[in-house]
Design a protein that fits this description.
Layout: E1 7-12, H1 16-27, E2 32-36, E3 49-50, H2 52-58, H3 64-70, E4 76-81, E5 84-89, E6 104-105, H4 108-122, E7 128-129, E8 132-139, E9 142-148, E10 154-164, H5 171-176, E11 180-197, E12 204-208, E13 213-218, E14 225-230, H6 244-254, E15 260-277, E16 281-282, E17 285-287, E18 293-294, H7 302-321, H8 328-356, H9 360-377, H10 381-391, E19 405-406, H11 428-431, E20 437-442, H12 450-457, E21 464-469, E22 480-484, E23 490-495, H13 500-509, H14 513-519
Parallel strand pairs: 1-2, 1-10, 2-7, 4-12, 10-17, 19-23, 20-21
Antiparallel strand pairs: 3-6, 4-5, 8-9, 9-10, 11-14, 11-15, 12-13, 13-14, 15-18, 16-17, 20-22, 22-23
Length: about 525
């Protein structure tokens, strides 16, 4: 029997991606459920770092301060070479447009705990653990889903949309018939959260040797260190479960200084794949996170890309389900996020190949040339800043999105339409944290015609917030105005005080309520 009252959204998978999506849907008052076939959240994890852009994107939901409190914002890397150690700065470059100019080391298990607590405190939504999606048919006005609960009972539900956040072996992706293309790497890796005696605290450590590579990352919880090593090809007993004897043997082989491993919280071995979904959407079904892309951990991009997938999609689903935006807004999810996913797959594939290849030339470059050049290159603030902005995902933009428009008299300075809204001393991120769109009018208040300002809010009052910043040229000389999307990206920016272009943009993408209801009828949403 199918429940008569359809959901707006069914979220399948309660990892970081699904939980972030649920947090955003809750903020917009969407009717949704979030299910996960596992009986409990992860107590161990492979993702270990949160990028600055992810911290920014989660800040409106009140969890970023807690994440930072639990994590370790290490800013130094120790690159250990035969006979010497190179000290490299990471994210100590004084970036002025983000409140989080650091890579936060934090176990994925802790990240899930913080996001799960957010939903639990909301009091209206709980993760339905032990609930598995068995069948999905997305035809007509709804997707029909068959769920199996922990007690063996089954339930049929209708949902306007289904989002697969259920990982690399996604049932949602399989049921939707979306291909997952790519390859697996031949190497096997060992992973462990444990204690290490003899290792300098407060930094990340990389050991670069002819035999292979070994990393220690500062965690704090559930253990002080995350160990990551490539299993040597001549290691015996590769089919046996990972144990401390194996890990200590690898450390003794790679490290000249004596390090003693102890008190493991968990350990495992794993293989890495590089695969991407052929599409991020099939009708009423969407994919996000590992269901859409899996790759090596190089650059700490995976979990962060998944969370940002979710926060790009959630507000779009919310506005369409509430008939506040046209259905075409949902088309922008794939056009915006699929190129990001492909770039991450390419970047991590190249980085992984260089880091693990047995090619003699690449081995020399990896262990001798790169460690000597890195300190010289990183002394250049401009280059180090560019590297930081790329890895931190602050440089991600949607300039080519159908939902991005540059207005007339475009300012030469400052962010462009499609760019992330930079934070400044005026705390723009806090100013624009409330759900909905934000209009920034940058110039003296008497420059703006009250009738035009009122027209921007009319019929969409609950989703438009207007801020007059009584200063000319927030990012340079001249009077400017811009529209900031719910996910913190600039949808429209123009110079001068004429708001005609802004009003035209809003009429297309956030029409006044009556027009919105006519263009987004349930039968076509």
């Amino acid at each position: 029997m199918i429940a008569s009252e359809p959901l707006d959204v069914l979220v399948v998978g309660a990892g970081p991606t699904g939980l972030a999506l649920a947090a955003q849907l809750h903020a917009y008052g969407v009717r949704f459920r979030i299910v996960d076939r596992h009986l409990d959240r992860a107590r161990e994890s492979r993702a270990l770092a949160i990028q600055p852009r992810t911290l920014e994107a989660l800040a409106p939901y009140g969890v970023t301060d807690e994440l930072v409190t639990r994590g370790n914002p290490a800013v130094q890397l120790r690159m250990h070479l035969p006979g010497r150690t190179v000290r490299l700065p990471l994210f100590d470059i004084g970036v002025g447009d983000t409140p989080y100019p650091f890579l936060l080391f934090l176990s994925q298990a802790e990240t899930e705990c913080v996001l799960g607590d957010l939903l639990a405190q909301a009091g209206t939504t709980t993760v339905e653990r032990g609930t598995e999606l068995l069948e999905l048919t997305a035809e007509g006005a709804h997707a029909v889903c068959r769920l199996k609960h922990q007690d063996g009972s089954e339930e049929w539900i209708n949902a306007r949309y289904v989002v697969g956040c259920d990982g690399a072996h996604s049932t949602v992706r399989d049921q939707a018939g979306i291909g997952f293309e790519g390859h697996a790497y031949p190497q096997t890796f060992l992973l462990a959260d444990l204690e290490v005696d003899g290792l300098e605290r407060g930094a990340a450590h990389a050991y670069m040797t002819e035999a292979g590579m070994l990393f220690f990352f500062p965690l704090g919880s559930p253990a002080s260190w995350r160990m990551l090593a490539m299993r040597p090809p001549d290691t015996r007993g590769t089919e046996r479960p990972v144990n401390m004897e194996q890990l200590q043997a690898i450390v003794d082989r790679y490290v000249s200084d004596r390090l003693h491993l102890r008190d493991p919280v968990w350990m495992t071995d794993f293989r890495i794949q590089n695969r991407g979904a052929k599409n991020y959407r099939a009708g009423r079904v969407f994919l996000a996170g590992d269901a859409a892309h899996i790759h090596s951990p190089a650059g700490a991009q995976g979990m962060n890309t998944g969370i940002q997938d979710a926060l790009n999609l959630g507000w779009k689903l919310a506005l369409v389900c509430q008939h506040a935006a046209p259905v075409a807004l949902l088309d922008t999810y794939e056009s915006e996020r699929a190129p990001i996913g492909r770039n991450v797959l390419r970047f991590t594939d190249r980085a992984f190949t260089i880091a693990t290849s047995g090619n003699p030339l690449l081995r020399v470059a990896r262990t001798r040339v790169a460690p000597r050049l890195a300190p010289l290159v990183l002394r250049l603030p401009g280059l180090r800043g560019a590297v930081f902005r790329t890895l931190s995902q602050l440089a991600i933009h949607y300039r080519k999105s159908p939902a991005t428009t540059g207005g007339p008299y475009r300012p030469r300075r400052g962010p462009r339409a499609g760019d992330r809204l930079p934070d400044t001393a005026r705390n723009l991120h806090a100013l624009t944290a409330a759900p909905g769109y934000h209009v920034l009018l940058c110039g003296p208040s008497d420059d703006w015609e009250s009738s035009s300002v009122s027209a921007a809010a009319r019929g969409r009052d609950h989703l438009i917030h207007i801020h007059t910043l009584d200063t000319s040229g927030l990012w340079g000389p001249g009077v400017t105005h811009c529209l900031v999307r719910p996910d913190g990206y600039i949808a429209y920016r123009a110079g001068g005080t004429d708001l005609t272009g802004l009003l035209n943009y809003l009429d297309e993408w956030l029409p006044p309520s009556e027009a919105g209801n006519r263009s987004s009828a349930p039968s076509s949403a």
